[in-house]
Amino acid sequence: MQGLELCEKxxxxxxxxxxxxxxxxxxPQIAVGLFGSGSECYGYxxxxxxxxxxxxxxxxxLPGEETVDRRTAFLLERxxxxxxGEYAGxxxxxxxxxxxxxxxxxxxxxxxxxxxxxxxxxxxxxxxIRLPENYLSEFTNGKLFYDGPGTLTSxxxxxxxxxxxxxxKKLAGHLLLAAQAGQYNYARCLAHGxxxxxxxxxxxxxxxxxxxxxxxxxxxxxYYKWSYRALRACPVLSEFADIFSxxxxxxxxxxxxxxxxxxxxxxxxxxxxxxxxxxxTEAICTDLEKHAYSVNDSIGDAxxxxxxxxxxx
Length: 313
Known about the structure:
Shape: elongated
Helix content: 40-55%
Strand order of the largest sheet: 5-2-1-6
């Protein structure tokens, strides 16, 4: 049983009855779920995952202290701590009586401030652009088991993907940087005899092209630890994962470098085809840089379009 399923069953069988009994008047004001940085929140947990921070547990989101006082929150923390110490053969962790920072009783305004930067989660365009992408990935992954007020449901729906103009601005910036690294600097570094610098160019190319693939799939790129696993699950251009694996793990001797140079161009061509199919570019060429500027020119909001092409990267 995967961790997310384990935690939801634990909530349904043990958590929900406890909450309804311990705080019946509070039930309409709380939300319960599991999402965040844990591998189980992505469905990526395996045997290795169980060596730390793995347990049956869930997050209980309370309103601020002006609505639910400290004493009530404390009593709920005690009730959470008294839930069975083991479920489906998996022991609960005994790190803290309230469950730690991944599980247990949390104040929703504090959680939103920690994850989104604002206690109400109402981000401006600039704040959304500047927020680390893995934070958005972790805010929208996993599952809400229950949401009385509907606040978290609304915010998770709103931030499920970047607004279109922001998506295009970010896409344009990553395409430009990929072009500089892979279609320009890789060969020049090799010509200078700088094999290490050439490999750094490959790293940068793969990194920015990976970002572009997530943007084309309207998905957030997770923390680097899970980037390639998530890339392999993308509906569009998931084959890049294996191609990038070759580029990143092979040397830059004369024979291999020639092959890698061709692959860099092939990958660019594949991505350009998707850009053209989706109407994101009007450029007709194999130069990623020109497509980057074409994508930027397609942004509807004039103020965002006229900012530097790398503004959102």
